[in-house]
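Task 17 of the worksheet. Students: predict the tertiary structure of the chain below and write it out as structure tokens. Keep your answer in the requested format; marks are given for formatting as well as content.
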Amino acid sequence: MTAPALKLFDLTGKSILVTGASRGIGAALAQGLADAGARVCAVGRSPAPEAPSGSVEYHSADLRTQIVEIVARAAGDAGRLDGLVNCAGVTLPAQDGADEMRRFRQTFDTNLDAAYGAVLAAVPLMGAGGSIVNVTSIGSVTGFPDNPGYVSSKGALRMLTKALAVDLGPKGIRVNALAPGYIATAMTAKSFAAPVEHERRRAHTCLGRWGKPEDLIGAAIFLLSDASAYVTGADIFVDGGWTAKGLV
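Model answer:
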């Protein structure tokens, strides 16, 4: 690849906000984007990230009540935000009883409402060339057992991505979805540690392994850089081929 082509992926000088960045995929994306040259502001619920980094500015905050303040910090003195990665998410398996509806709404509140709130706060500080990446899931296009809140909220986030691509395209702002497959994180630790579940999910993946958070960095750099200048409204699946594989 020639040097001019490589420069398409350069994030130097770009200000990017990453939510859900205290651990797992969000933390890996924040670090990877910083390594690619971006000035990264990361936000999470934990008081501190699991792996502190001098190249990532981390803030502990509640996205529902502090998003305007966080976006302003991410924009910095220039008052401009070049990228937003909505990675904050929860999974709350279904439970019988009166508490189920509360858990369902809590899942939507984090996985969908908070993402849209971040977009609304970020767009006024974005100009042409801005990029928004919503982290969805393979669950956005397929059902999972006993987890209606997660799959329906991720499916809604997928469609919100497409709606925003239509609305923000005239402003020169791109909006895409990054859909992970089975990634070894704290959120999937129970399945990863269960031999039968672990093997079933590994075997259904074309590449024959679970993913790592770092496996998503390359796709994120692509979507947030000039390399994807003509890509919007797309679903980028980083799932080892899980969604490509039918019944076997």
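Marker's comment: Residues 100-122 form the longest helix (23 residues). The radius of gyration is 18 Å.
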